[in-house]
Write a structure and sequence with these properties.
Order of helices and strands: HHHH
Distance between the termini: 34 Å
Helix content: over 70%
Radius of gyration: 18 Å
Number of helices: 4
Shape: elongated
Largest sheet: none
């Protein structure tokens, strides 16, 4: 296995961790916490918020960073064309460039919008009730945005390796 193949393998592995956790948060944990909060006879959401969420968010953050770094490394080979702004709207490298920019937006959302606000919601950082309400909205919208962006981003990754999108 050459170095580029190893980097791509690591990129895909880290991406599975990142996007898998993104889908877990949006389709499993958020609805489960809402159900646990609404259940007056149940244990409540404390176990998820105290034990599961911090660990899952750590894997989520570092999976996002590892995915981006290995993706940037994979793009550095000449046949791919590098991570540049001219990689749009032609076949080949442009498709992977669109995916790379979508992934960059998603990484920004993870580290700048989701994580700082989740720290407030999980009590890792002090926040007033108003700050927590705002944090909940921002983290929710950034997470849903990432979920929506993940589909075209994944399509761009797959399309690059399979000759682009048919026109």
């Amino acid at each position: 296995m050459n170095t580029w193949s190893l980097i791509v393998w690591l990129h895909v592995f880290a991406g599975i961790i990142w996007i898998g956790l993104l889908y877990y948060f949006n389709f499993v944990q958020v609805p489960a916490v809402a159900a646990a909060t609404a259940d007056s006879d149940g244990p409540g959401p404390a176990a998820i918020s105290k034990y599961v969420a911090p660990r899952a968010l750590a894997w989520f953050r570092w999976g996002a960073l590892a995915t981006w770094l290995t993706g940037a490394a994979a793009l550095s080979v000449p046949q791919v064309g590098g991570f540049t702004t001219h990689m749009f709207f032609t076949n080949g490298p442009s498709i992977i460039g669109i995916g790379a920019w979508l992934g960059t937006i998603m990484l920004f959302n993870v580290w700048v919008l989701i994580w700082p606000n989740q720290k407030k919601l999980l009590g890792m950082v002090e926040a007033s009730d108003d700050q927590k309400a705002t944090a909940k909205k921002v983290a929710f919208m950034a997470s849903r945005t990432n979920t929506l962006l993940s589909i075209p981003m994944l399509m761009c990754m797959v399309a690059y390796g399979h000759g682009g999108f048919p026109i």
